[in-house]
Amino acid sequence: MLFRYISKRFAVGLIQLIGLTIAVFFLIRLLPADPVSRLVGMNSSAEAYAQAAKQLGVDRPLLAQLATYLGFQPDIAPGLLQGSLGVSWVTGTPVTTEIAAYLPVTIELVTLSFILALAVAVPIGMFGALNPGGKADKGVFVYSLFAGSQPEFWWGLLFVYLFFFQLGIAPAPLGRLSPMSSPPDVVTGFMTIDALIAGQFDIFVEALHHLMLPVFTMAFILSGPIIKMVRQNMARALQSDFVLYANCAGLPRARVARYALRAAMAPSMTLIGILYGFMLSGAVLTESVFSLGGIGQYAISAVLNYDYPAIQAVVLVITAISLVVYLALDLIHAAIDPRIAY
Amino acid sequence: MTRLEAAALQASSMIEPTTARTVLSVENLVVGYPVDGRMIKPVDGLSFKVREREVVGLIGDAGSGKSTAALALLGLARAPGKILGGKVEFDGRDLLKLPDAEIRAIRGRDIGIIVQNPRSSLNPMLRIGKQIGYAYQAHNAASGQQLRRKAIDMLRMVGINDPERRADSYAHELSGGMAQRALIAMALSSKPKLLIADEPTSGLDVTIQAQFLDEMWNTVQQTGSAILLITQELGTLANYCDRVLVLHEGRIVEDAPVREFFANPQHPYSQQILKLQRERGSSLGLELPEGGVKPLLQTRDLRKTFAVQHTKKTIQAVDKVSLSIGRGETLGLVGESGSGKTTVGRCLLRLLEPTSGSVVFDGEDLVKLPPNDMRRYRSKLQIVFQDPFDSLNPRWTIRRILCEPLDLHSNLSAADKNKRAEELIDLVDLDRTLLDRKPRGLGAGALQRINIARALACNPEFIVLDEPTSVLSPRARVGLIELLVRLQKELGISYLFISHDLTTVRYLCHKVSVMYLGQIVETGTVEQVFSRPQHPYSQALLSAHLFPDPTNRRVDKVIPAALEGEIPSPIDLPIGCYLASRCPHVVEACRSTPQTLEPVDTGQEVRCWRAAAGEITAFKGAHA
């Protein structure tokens, strides 16, 4: 049953991805832009232009380009079917290699931020629901309005000023490691994990240290909506008949709180999933402030350079990850709440 | 001690042997809810006592504070309500003054509670067995396998088949009745000294309801505890309670032994709800002219099937129903939920198209009429639905609601329509000021009267009443029954009264048909069917019904065995008698021979060849 459900979701996801790939392929080409002249320069000769266009393959009919991209003409160039996302028009490097370098940074940042945000926000939201109208509850309300209403790069700058410049407990916002250290061998692309694999514990600590402020910034922003959601779901659960009856049956306070928390977390899963997918590309401002070089920055430079293969790859990869995350959270939701049927 | 108190003390010692210890003593309990800055007090000065081994019934209208009071006895109130004052003394301790941990120890261990909405009161995310285990563990030293075994034992005790499997079910996998049993299992797991049961059988079918109350009553007799039974049903009070408390506007207005309560109610509210019992229908004047009346509506072999999606199978909802209703006559249609009563009602009006058969109204077969001609008949045949809230548009004023049928079926001027609306509202005994209000905020009783007024707007000759009293409080129910009888007498309307409440049917109907699995199994006058039911299913239905008669209590007599087993699926119906799998009188021939309605000696028609042959022993209804 479970296996069938997962395979079904994957099949549907695959269809979505194929549709998306084709749609994005055409939509980009509708843009009133000329990537070739961007590459060869405005004043280049007609021969140079034609040469470049031929090299990029854009002189061929659109459908032929699509066929190549999808991998139906491996003799011309490898495509999706061969596991290739194409070659960047700007750098000439395979897009797959570039994504493998940029994506882990973002995943590491967003995942750690979510773990921190959940660890802080769930207990606070729970506490607020258990003591509604209390001082803490009101404080949290003000915070979630305040934190969410200002953009994260602004908070990032403030934190840099406070924790790096004034207090000196955070490192300079200049990437994933200090310029003096040499990174461990790349295995997974995640700095922390690679450091552990290489057995370089000092690098691991340093990587965490460098992630401290960006993660804190992201978690600071994320906590607002999560607290609100947990508090609201928890308050609803606490007023439900089965919590009332648990009290009637004389169950201990801790057990009743656990009943309510479980009921509150189940519906929260959906929102957390959507938030996560959104943050994969939305983390770009934080990445910029801390010079982290994540997928968001890669996407922006791809768009600015009309690097079509890169744009397509970013859309595809982020969508694929989001779909997997949604599926995972739906499975967790179903594990928490048995009423959810596959 | 004042004279009054002394008198009260003496009176109470007369009722109960002096040895009976007081288990629960409530004094001046007040519960308040803040509404728009004011405090509304649904419980306001509640005082009463419950003694050991006593079954005390608590009756009151909707909104009289029954459920609020039940929770407050445990020191709880639904948010944002609060207990504002009073004393709840249990075993000599005031529960309202105890610290949280101590009162939690008493809840569930000493006082168990069964609430009205069992399925939503069970944790939807935990297996039933686990929940019962937790409830037990909260008050007893046990763990792991012991808890599971205890849960299974409890489930078995409350009569759940295959308790090992059910212990692993979730609440949403249980039927309403099973969820109710699971809740009872939880409430009784620590053997409480007092059980508070808040309408424990609302929403259950009659046959299950009686079985269930019997089990609860037996359990309490065996364990020597006391019950506070909260109910809206006079039948439940009469059959199971020793003493009756009447809750009205948040306080107890009458406290009497059950027989005394029924024989001689003191408070005006009690007198109102008991009015029909005491007058025994005589003043309702249900007499019809000698020699019967001319039939107004007759059906012949009415059938209705529904296709089952994605298969070629069909559900047989109504099967060969033939009935006849005379002018000014009321036919009661009774049976358990799912027996097809409502479908019959809707087919008569072609709200559902019958699959086959005829509905002859005043000489015209409605089933054959083209839609345009049918429209002319719509004003002659009306319907009143079960749920008064959902059948009125909440955005319209009552005036607009009452004028709508006039817009469709008459050419009256606006002024005449207004006049008619006023006549209608007078006709159902409501105040004319209601005309400019919207349904919001009105009680179920008033809304149902508006539904009836709307049905009457175009002078119908026939009205289908589809369980119109089932969601009403006892007082509103009495009022509505009286209204229906009066309207029939004044206007000469015929009714098809669909109900599972046999007590109401007895007051209101001239004839009655009993339905089982889409078929009529017995039909006759109320007198015939209620005093000498012939079909085994009618017998079972009548013996399970709780008539409000404290002189013939169910707990005092030997109860004939209830029907066993489950109702067969309406998709795969048996070849022979539909009741064969559950009937105590079954013989081999029943299983293979389809049954037809046959007249029997006592006057009614019965769909049972053994009854027609006089082979089934007479059953004493004794309630007609």
From TrEMBL, chain A:
SUPFAM superfamilies: MetI-like. It comes from the Bacteria. InterPro entries: BPD_transp_1_N (IPR045621), MetI-like (IPR000515), MetI-like_sf (IPR035906). Keywords: Cell membrane, Membrane, Transmembrane, Transmembrane helix, Transport. PROSITE patterns: ABC_TM1 (PS50928). Its main location: membrane. The keyword Cytoplasm does not apply. Residues 103-329 form the ABC transmembrane type-1 domain. The chain crosses the membrane at residues 12-32, 109-133, 153-174, 211-230, 259-279, 310-329. Pfam families: BPD_transp_1, BPD_transp_1_N. Belongs to the binding-protein-dependent transport system permease family. This is ABC transporter permease. It comes from Kaistia terrae.
UniProtKB/TrEMBL annotation, chain B:
It is a peripheral membrane protein. Residues 24-274, 297-542 form the ABC transporter domain. GO terms for molecular function: ATP binding. Coiled coil: none annotated. InterPro entries: AAA+_ATPase, ABC_Ni/Peptide_Import, ABC_transporter-like_ATP-bd, ABC_transporter-like_CS, Oligopep_ABC_C, P-loop_NTPase. The keyword Hydrolase does not apply. Its main location: membrane. Keywords: ATP-binding, Cell membrane, Membrane, Nucleotide-binding, Transport. This is Dipeptide ABC transporter ATP-binding protein. SMART domains: AAA. Belongs to the ABC transporter superfamily.
